Automatic annotation (TrEMBL), chain A:
<feature type="transmembrane region" description="Helical">
    <location>
        <begin position="189"/>
        <end position="214"/>
    </location>
</feature>
<dbReference type="Pfam" id="PF00528">
    <property type="entry name" value="BPD_transp_1"/>
</dbReference>
<keyword id="KW-1133">Transmembrane helix</keyword>
<feature type="transmembrane region" description="Helical">
    <location>
        <begin position="116"/>
        <end position="135"/>
    </location>
</feature>
<feature type="transmembrane region" description="Helical">
    <location>
        <begin position="80"/>
        <end position="104"/>
    </location>
</feature>
<feature type="transmembrane region" description="Helical">
    <location>
        <begin position="147"/>
        <end position="168"/>
    </location>
</feature>
<dbReference type="GO" id="GO:0055085">
    <property type="term" value="P:transmembrane transport"/>
</dbReference>
<dbReference type="GO" id="GO:0005886">
    <property type="term" value="C:plasma membrane"/>
</dbReference>
<keyword id="KW-0813">Transport</keyword>
UniProtKB/TrEMBL annotation, chain B:
<protein>
    <submittedName>
        <fullName>Carbohydrate ABC transporter substrate-binding protein, CUT1 family</fullName>
    </submittedName>
</protein>
<comment type="similarity">
    <text>Belongs to the bacterial solute-binding protein 1 family.</text>
</comment>
<dbReference type="InterPro" id="IPR006311">
    <property type="entry name" value="TAT_signal"/>
</dbReference>
<dbReference type="InterPro" id="IPR050490">
    <property type="entry name" value="Bact_solute-bd_prot1"/>
</dbReference>
Length: 297, 554
């Protein structure tokens, strides 16, 4: 009996191959981790360290929390974080609700105007509305200077609908038939059967949506005139921009400029932290969700 | 006296005060049709005349008269040409310059571009509360970060959502500003032109170079925020110059290059420069300030000056010789500043207010190179536009509303040493500042609460006063400013309006700037510049010249 032929990628690699792979992996990890280290180190560095290193610090000679102290000195950043969390939570929940409903409706053959509505949704992938028309629409809906302006206009994305619709279409039709025979309503089918079976897709789309809401600075910039309503990203942008201007900045008598790079990097840390914390809990759904629709069989 | 350069290719040296009235509107057929009458109007110093301004059917507005405000005796006196007064400390208990009540307790919503993080909300902001109380208004700022202004402003215009008061930075080059002003903002000529401005004494203290920016279509639409007339400076790191034993004030290009060689120590990571110094080199070679006006009335871009290409080539030679930091093309401003502070760059070319920021650092000793001509002749120094921004009032016929707006602008324009100026600079004692050795010093809260954008809205000539800064820096700046005054070179197109420039100058200049960078870095020969300039001309530069010539009738 001849030995079973194994594909190349299942064979035991030679030692040299393993070493090369190991080095390559370490290098790739370093490339990924290095910017994070620089960001965190610079956020903890003193002005002297930043000057000595030409702007960015790999490892500070002395650690300082001054940048964090300055950021959290006062209520602005704290308030902005709360606002961002609120917008992200409400926006993600609302968007997921609308997206799942739309995807379910469009996945079921026989839904009213299913084909026409689907075409209508797909067209929005090809043509963006443009900034000014959206602004005018938000204004005419009376949403300027409200948080709804950050949620309603972008609540439903055709891309997300297609992802979830594709996942729902992959659920065997017999399951739907069995549920209907048992007398389940459409709502019951969606909530008790479709959603539990679509957790991976919903989690991935939810993550996309949450990251989008968390990172959104353009909407607040356009629609929120009151700076006290600004979410973290827009506030962070004003901190970041501050360090790159001198010719027109005001000069406050008797003040030494703060270490702007440290403040900027500290803000990057603060803004990235929630996403970094949330990611590990969603990774188990990621691979399955991301592969949705990748292979048709 | 202002000295205009460009005689090398037949350019005249006329002043700007009259033509600046005609910014906007007077282009094309309208300018040709009304040109003669406008000249008549310009030639009279009084109010207006009979000519139509910018086709509006209204007489050309006169320049507001200048009545210099009473001010405390400076430590070093400035002058009318732009040298700034120097004060050693902020006078305490200054007089009130606005006697009457400014506001009526109503809301005062204003749009302003800012550079820092937004101020804390009203209920937590003692500075804001004090301003509300002093002005008897409920101030409602709409603060737009400077990088986002080009996005937010068009949206507000399109949505007809501009607030009551709008501050427009001049350098933002807002498209079709004269037309926008005519459509959306109040013509203030009746209240500000000529002697009318005297009703608001602090506005009368604003100098002509700043008011020149407020004329749109020949009418006065805004109150300016004055800017020093000085453009860029070449800052020098004193310790490096002392160590190298070279002068911070070279007299010729040869000496400048020799200094750069002496200052550069690449093994130690020390370089003469860390950023491209195009404008400085062009001035050294006697290239005029962006545009020059020939005796026949045509406008010639500085790109066409005979010394333009040689100046860039000389800069490229210096890069090739290794006097520039190897990362010059990619260094960010913050990195350049850090290198300069830590003596790894000997020279830094930056804007006119960088000295204020740098001079706050007690341990930093720096100087500023005086202008020089490449062969030791008479140098050139390019001036700026005279105003940072103009602030306009949304369209209204309500005289009381206009008066309230101008009273607020008057209060904001209070001169240094006044009660109003002190309030704006320091806020509330205890909450925003404390006295240290008899000198008011902003505390943390004071620094945090100040950025409501009021510093960018209106005001007359600026001064130098930095009691907590490095000693003698203000004097050094004053000395430097005095040194360049004889060599000031105005841009004759500075206050003229060209539709083509308004719409395309940014993208067209980028093409030339890219070519300059390629030549500077040695990637392309100097001849590339001529090709880029030709493209600039045919793509809109020639049209700009024509439009400026048509707009220039004063």
């Amino acid at each position: 009996m001849s030995a079973v032929e194994r594909p190349a990628w299942m064979g035991k690699p030679r030692l040299s191959t393993s070493i090369v792979r190991g080095i390559a992996l370490v290098l790739i990890c370093l490339v990924v981790i290095f910017p994070f280290v620089v960001v965190v180190s610079t956020s903890l560095a003193t002005q002297a360290d930043i000057d000595a290193n030409g702007g960015y610090v790999i490892w500070p000679a002395s650690f300082s929390l001054d940048a964090y102290h300055q950021i959290f000195n006062g209520t602005q950043v704290t308030r902005a974080i709360i606002i961002s969390i609120g917008i992200t939570a409400v926006g993600t929940a609302f968007s997921l609700f609308c997206t799942v409903l739309a995807a379910y409706g469009l996945s079921r053959k026989g839904s009213l105007f299913q084909r026409g509505l689907l075409t209508f949704v797909l067209i929005t992938l090809l043509f963006g509305p443009g900034m000014i028309p959206v602004y005018l629409m938000v204004k005419n809906l009376g949403m300027l200077n409200t948080y709804w302006a950050l949620i309603i206009p972008g609540a439903v994305s055709a891309f997300n609908i297609i992802i979830i619709r594709g996942f729902i279409q992959g659920i065997p039709g017999e399951i739907f038939d069995a549920a209907r025979i048992d007398g389940a309503s459409e709502w019951k089918v969606l909530s008790k059967i479709v959603l539990p079976l679509s957790v991976a897709a919903v989690a991935v789309v939810g993550l996309f949506l949450a990251v989008g809401y968390w990172n959104n600075y353009f909407g607040p910039l356009l629609y929120l005139n009151d700076s006290n309503m600004w979410p973290l990203q827009l506030l962070m942008r004003s901190f970041v921009l501050q360090g790159n201007v001198s010719s027109t900045a005001t000069n406050i008598p008797g003040t030494v400029p703060p270490p702007q790079q440290a403040i900027q990097m500290a803000l990057v840390v603060i803004a990235t932290l929630p996403i970094l914390c949330a990611y590990p809990f969603l990774t188990k759904h990621m691979s399955k969700g991301m592969l949705t629709g990748a292979v048709k069989g | 006296m202002t000295q205009h350069r460009g005689s090398a290719f037949g350019l005249d040296a006329q002043g700007m005060s009259r033509r600046s009235l005609l910014k906007g509107g007077l282009i094309g057929a309208a300018a040709l049709a009304f040109g003669g009458s406008i000249l008549s109007a310009c030639s009279s110093s009084g109010g207006g005349g009979t000519a139509a301004a910018g086709g509006s059917g209204l007489p050309l507005a006169a320049m507001p008269v200048n009545v210099p405000p009473l001010k405390p005796e400076p430590f070093l006196a400035g002058n009318a040409q732009g040298v700034m007064d120097v004060y050693k400390s902020f006078p305490l208990d200054g007089p009130k310059t606005v006697a009457q009540t400014v506001g009526d307790g109503s809301d005062f919503e204003f749009l302003v571009m800012t550079y820092g993080q937004p101020a804390p909300p009203l209920k937590e902001n003692a500075y804001w509360q004090l301003l509300n109380s002093e002005l008897n208004l409920n101030l409602k700022p709409i603060m737009v970060p400077y990088a986002d202004f080009p996005t937010k402003f068009p949206a507000l215009v399109a949505g007809d959502d501009l607030p009551e008061v709008v501050s427009v930075p001049m350098y933002m080059n807002v498209p079709r500003l004269p037309e926008l002003a005519a459509a959306k903002f109040t013509d203030l000529s009746e209240y500000l032109a000529g002697d009318a401005v005297k009703k608001y004494p602090n506005l009368a203290g604003i100098q002509e170079s700043a008011w020149s920016n407020s004329f749109l279509g020949g009418r006065l639409y805004g109150v300016p925020k004055s800017d020093p007339i000085f453009g860029g400076q070449l800052y020098t790191k004193t310790d490096l110059f002392e160590a190298a034993g070279v002068s911070e004030h070279p007299q010729s290009l040869e000496e400048f290059k020799a200094n750069a060689a002496a200052l550069t120590d690449s093994k130690a990571g020390v370089y003469a420069f860390g950023g491209i110094i195009t404008d400085f080199m062009l001035q050294t070679f006697g290239v005029p300030n962006k545009w020059a006006r020939s005796t026949d009335g045509t406008f010639v871009p500085h790109y066409e000056h005979e010394a333009f290409v040689p100046a860039i080539a000389a800069m490229a030679d210096m890069y090739k010789a290794g006097y520039f930091h190897p990362d010059t093309a990619t260094l960010e401003k913050t990195q350049r500043d850090a290198f300069f502070r830590t003596s790894r760059l000997a020279m830094l070319y930056d804007g006119n207010r960088a000295f204020g920021i740098i001079s706050d650092d007690h341990d930093l000793k720096f100087g500023m190179a005086r202008s020089f001509e490449k062969d030791g002749g008479t140098p050139v120094y390019w001036t700026g536009g005279g105003a940072y921004a103009i602030t306009m009032l949304s369209k209204t016929d309500d005289a009381a509303k206009i008066d309230r707006f101008l009273k607020v602008m008057d209060w904001l324009s209070a001169p240094f040493g006044s009660h109003e100026s002190f309030i704006q600079s320091y806020g509330a004692e205890g909450d925003n500042f404390d006295y240290v050795d008899g000198i008011p010093v902003l505390n943390d809260r004071g620094q945090r609460e100040q950025d409501l954008g009021f510093a960018y809205i209106a005001g007359g000539p600026q001064i130098l006063c930095n009691p907590q800064g490095a000693p003698d820096n203000d004097e050094a700046i004053h000395t430097w400013q005095t040194s360049v005054i004889p060599f000031l070179d105005d841009n004759p197109a500075q206050h003229l309006f060209s539709e083509t420039a308004n719409a395309k100058s940014g993208s067209l200049e980028q093409g030339v700037n890219d070519a300059i960078m390629s030549v500077f870095l040695g990637r392309e020969p100097a001849a590339t510049l001529e090709k880029a300039i030709k493209t600039w001309k045919t793509s809109g530069g020639d049209k700009m010249a024509t439009e400026y010539a048509e707009a220039y009738v004063g």
